[in-house]
Amino acid sequence: MLSIAWAPLYAHPLPDNHRFPMLKYELLPEQLLREGTVPESAFFAPVAPPAPDILRTHDADYYQRLCTGGLTRQEERATGFPWSVQLIEREVTILGGTLECVRRALQSGIALNIAGGTHHAFRDRGEGFCLLNDQAAAADYLLAHPELGVRKVLIVDLDVHQGNGTARIFQDEPRVFTFSMHGARNYPHRKEHSDLDLPLPDNTDDASYLALLRSTLPRLLDEVQPDFVFYLSGVDVLATDKLGHLALSREGCRQRDEFVLGLCHRHHLPVVVCMGGGYSPRIADIIEAHANTFRAAAALW
Question: What positions does the domain Histone deacetylase occupy (predicted)?
Fold first, then answer.
């Protein structure tokens, strides 16, 4: 059975201009339960992790100012969110969810976070609706605990936006390989250098996208030899996405997830999946595409 991190505060109230993108955190669990993809017992309530599990990745001064409302106005604008105590509680809990997913995936093979994938957060700052980098903190947690047996981590970032914060955090860490396949002409305008970047032209369709992914990821598994995989399964690659500029169908997005998860399953690699972005005007397009990720996982594990 799948393990899925979810808490009501994932969808905590925000000003009206932020409200729509947050609806998926309420609706996706309801959809998965209603259709019978997972039982209610699959969900667990994440909790805030100990501060050392955050400070292993994030600068202490930044984290202290983040928690106490001490960001400058410019820093706050860069995150895209108005600061609040509830927002910080949400971000810390999301990170805790990904950490717990790591522990569960080591036992069962896979765990998923309804939220997470906050790949624009750097060590010392937040950007692009990302305040704390949950997958980076979880990778650092694995490396800090050698008794867990993870010597090499592969981060597969298939959100439409480059994982710039993650790339920068691990630029000098050979034990973490960062792979980002993203829109070339998309946020962030100043890209960092992942270990492997595959920038895609506007209007890349299913056939081109899937051919490139299928020719790349198996080779990476052979070359990197990871012991653990993080998968950022953003659905902002859809043609319907108002921010993405790519042209995948929901079927193409489903095949993407089935390929990535199937490859991890066949190689007996534990994997943690985080949802990442999705900004289609119709919430049904977002929910259905995200639900396909869970359906693919449930069919394999």
Answer: 23-290
